[in-house]
Amino acid sequence: MGSRARVVAPVRWSDVDLFGHVNNAAFLRFLDDARFAAFPGLGVDAAGEISEEVLVVVKHEIDYLAPVRFTAEPLAVEVWVSRVGTSSVDFGYEIRAGGDAGGAGDDTGNDGSSKPYLRARSRMVQVDRSTGRPRPFDDVQRERFAAHTDAEPDLRPW
Fold first, then answer.
1. Fewer CB within 10 A of the terminal residue: the chain, N end or C end?
2. 10 Å Cβ neighbour count for 76?
């Protein structure tokens, strides 16, 4: 495993749908929250103002691997950079049980970590706010992404 960031996400009662499990829309919020916690400054400056370069989502791919029911135990969202292009970047994600290191739960793998509930990938494009056109990453931005790189997420084919 490369340099993944790990963000703890509590499951709120409002995340659970009528089928008794976390709704797919709530998972998108978990992914967004983790990405912005792990990579501050993605389109917002230190004062919380929108910067001249913003990253916009152009694609999400999500494999739901197991249902998550309401639990007091937080989820662990791992997020990393799997590809950096000229003006686009791909983020990989896995969501597992447990907010502590290694996770917990009934379904653990051979390495002691919990098996993922979800694997996903998001592609984002940096856009110049004044022109609305893609804007290439500079060297500083590339260095920030390089600190958290890992392999492409293992997603199922269509």
1. C
2. 24
**102, 103, 108, 112 alpha-carbon torsion, rounded to 10°:** 20
pLDDT digits (tens, 9 = 90+) for 117-140: 999 999 999 999 889 999 999 998
Task: Give bridge partners of residue 90 from the DSSP assignment.
Answer: 83, 123
Q: How far apart are the first and last CA of the chain?
A: 25
Distance between CA atoms of residues 8 and 103, nearest Å: 11
Residue 133, C-beta contacts closer than 8 angstroms, at least 6 positions apart: 127
Cβ contacts of 111 within 8 Å, gap of 6 or more: none
Q: Say if CB 68 and CB 46 are below 8 A apart.
A: no
Is residue 126 within 8 Å of 39, Cβ to Cβ? no
Q: How far apart are CA 108 and CA 53, in angstroms?
A: 41
pTM for this prediction: 0.86
d(CA 70, CA 17): 10
H/E element holding 140?
helix 139-146
pLDDT digits (tens, 9 = 90+) for 101-119: 443 344 544 455 688 999 9
